[in-house]
Amino acid sequence: MTITTRDERLTDSVLNARADARAQGGQTSEWMPYLPASSSPFCPDGVDPAKLTWSETVAPGGYTHKVLARGSRLRLDDPTGEACAHVLVFNALEPVERLNVADTQKIPWQAYLGPNHPLLSGDGRVLATITADTSGHHDAFCGTTTDAWNLHKYGDTRPEGPTPSGRSLFVKAASKHGLTRRDLPPSISFFQGVRVAPDGALQWHGSAGAGTHVELVAELPLLVFIANVAHPLDPRDDYVVGPLRVHAWRGAPTGPADERFSATPELNRAYLNTIDYAEARG
Description:
Elements: H1 6-10, H2 14-23, E1 52-58, E2 62-68, E3 73-78, E4 85-91, H3 101-106, E5 118-120, E6 126-133, E7 138-139, H4 147-154, H5 166-175, E8 188-190, E9 193-196, E10 202-206, E11 212-218, E12 222-228, E13 244-249, H6 265-281
Antiparallel strand pairs: 1-13, 2-12, 3-11, 3-13, 4-8, 4-12, 5-6, 6-11, 7-8, 9-10
């Protein structure tokens, strides 16, 4: 005797499958993009929900990606103290221009990310600038996790599995924008800190706790990839990562009236390079 399950009955014809799919259309999840963006239940204080262009809660072990207009404000929130936002940014007009972690540390003469720190490309331009930071626990040294590392530590590295690597999720995001793994540079991460010891060893400092946030401004049109995965130096045996909230809204890029525009000769040149490129591209 053949037994037909309930799920099989719901999808045993095109009409039934359509009805079943539409019945699920109003369902919500703890981790999801909010559409329209103004419907976010977590709109940052002081931001008009109507101005939001991106609202999403990224699952632990999840990823997201978005194209943002020049001047957009991007805010990342760590509600539990366990998020770890591994971030890559590209010039959305020419993705061959991308985050250069070495220049991001070298040009400002500061290896640790914090307020007014620029994220630079290898072309001497500022892709984004950190404008606010209540965490102070970030990392520009280690990059994200790899399949080999996660397989060694957790025994599983499938992107859809319980312990995905940041690298594998970045590859998935890249494929949706015509890019490949060869286009992915080293990333930075927010909310799980790393410091360099006097002997040169990298020390994991973990989280600043629940309820912190980081805000950035897009100095050029940006393609943003975010992987919310455990940090490679996290000493805990378990794959520990919490939800990440993401919001963006329209604003203005850094200009001559901003104090950081001329904070140092190196930064001034980088911002001038950025404005020159942006104005030439219209």
